[in-house]
Amino acid sequence: MRDITFHIRTYGCQMNERDSEALGCLLEERGWTPAGSEESADVLLFNTCSVRDQAERKAVGKIGFMKKVKKNKPDIVIGVLGCMAQNKGADLLKQLPHVDLVVGTDRIHELPALIERVLEERGKIVRTDTGAEVLGALSQHHHGRVTSFVSVMRGCDQFCAYCIVPYVRGREKSRPIDDIVAEVRHVVENGTKEIFLLGQNVTAYGLAELRATGGLTGAESPFGDLLRAVNDVHGVERVRFTSPHPKYMNEAFIDSVASLPKVCEAFHVPMQSGSDRMLKAMRRGYTAADYMSRIQTLKERLPHATFSTDVIVGFPGETEEDFNATRQAMETVGFDMAYIFKYSPRVGTRAADWADDVPTEVKEQRNQTLLADLEKRTTRTNKAYLNTCVEVLVEGESKRNAATWTGRTRTNKVCIFPPSADVKPGDVVTMRVDRVTANSLFGEITV
Ligand code: 5AD
Ligand code: SF4
After folding, report:
1. 404, 419 contact by CB (below 8 A)
2. How many other C-beta atoms are found inside a 10 Å radius of the C-beta of residue 36?
């Protein structure tokens, strides 16, 4: 087959980014090359997200725009992959008739063969059946990245009332620990220093498998065991993960993260709301006090830990009092980063049957209030870093300004410093902090 160029555009979460990276490697293994731009590609793939309506609309808008491109270049192959492809299936072809391929979340690894079929037969293909062992087939990485993302599980069994993920990504399925450790070893041999473990609900890693064998007591943490195994890989400098579910943050898990030296003390723990009434309606399986007690234990064990979260504002029935409970909880934990989402009903979920009764303006206003709180808080809390020395994993040239370099502290603070001949990406160095903003720490490398 002739030399083919491809371009992958990714929407949504880090799991999608990771799938796209592995898919890009699979296509390169076929001898195809990444195109410089969307317009110059022979094969244009959109890896999509369904979590919020806005995410779907954005992708549909962009793919719709490609109709013009296809008119001028009828041979181009356009594929829609991932969650929206899984969610909408063949309906997407009605909505976007210039699309050639619709490939669901469990079939991404089949894309090279599916694209070749489209190129040969010029027909349309919809492949959304579930159940394939996709994670093992998507273990390829680009070499030389300071941080590598490694998927440890897929799917979600929680069925939170607002969330479409269990419907599009299916049941929780964990990869064997040995496969994950082999993948970690491989990326470390190729230059990686930091491992970021990914899953929709990483603290449930291995639990469905244990339950199936009747061996689940609730006291164990297979994810804690996995962290230990990754921590023990020679050459790994740092380990991070996202996202844990508070319900499964048991003693065994907390003990692992608190005692393993390479696990960074920056935790992203989705809270969703600080109101018990909302948490119950959301079917999150914990109260605000349960959440706080997990955070408190982590703070006691790791006094310098930082915390970030996901919060939904404007869930059905959310009153000013519920919202204030969330605002207060965010202050109590002292989150220094949060993804705040305005509730968006998703067809098929439980909450979609309830009135979306918080007006858009109120959702927006609550969103803005929480964002302003965050900025004020981080401007204040980052001052604690002034005139201290922090350990930085160097990432390289700053994206915004080539004259400066960036890296991160273990607590996930972005550090900005002048480049120096002795410092290269992947080095672990010490920076003396001489200036801070809400978003970054600035200083000089001292060691
Ligand atoms: N509306 C708004 N936010 C949502 N999330 C998931 N589903 C919805 C929805 N229907 C948010 C949650 C989750 C994050 C990935 O997206 O906060 O943690
Ligand atoms: Fe969605 Fe809840 Fe699963 Fe997270 S834990 S993916 S919010 S259902």
Report:
1. yes
2. 10
Query: DSSP string spanning 47-77?
Result: EE--SSHHHHHHHHHHHHHHHHHHHH-TT-E
Ligand positioned closest to the Cα atom of 269? 1
Measured CA to CA, the distance from residue 97 to residue 93 in angstroms comes to: 5
Taking the CA of residue 284 as reference, the ligand 2 atom at the shortest distance is: 2
Question: DSSP letters of 337-358?
Answer: EEEEEE----TTSGGGGS---S
Q: Are strands 405-408 and 389-397 parallel, antiparallel or unpaired?
A: antiparallel
Q: Does ligand 1 have an atom closer than 6 angstroms to the CB of 315? A: no
User: What pTM, to 2 d.p., does this model score?
Assistant: 0.96
Ligand 2 atom, smallest distance to 166 CA: 8
- Regarding the beta carbon of 245 and ligand 2, being less than 6 Å apart is answered yes
Radius of gyration for the chain, computed over Cα atoms and rounded to the nearest angstrom: 23
State the ligand closest to the CA atom of 203.
Answer: 2
| pLDDT tens digit sequence for 262-306 | 999 999 999 999 999 999 999 999 999 999 999 999 999 999 999
- Is the beta carbon of 270 within 6 A of some atom in ligand 1? yes
Query: pLDDT of 99-144, one tens digit each?
Result: 999 999 999 999 999 999 999 998 999 999 887 778 888 999 999 9
Pocket of ligand 2, candidates 163, 168, 172, 311: which has the most ligand atoms within 8 Å of its Cβ, to mutate? Answer: 163
Secondary element (H or E) of residue 177: helix 177-189
The atom of ligand 1 lying closest to the CA of 163 is 7
Look at ligand 2, atom 2, and give the residue with the nearest C-alpha.
160
The structure tokens listed for 282 are 């959301």
Structure-token match 């968006």, residue found: 344
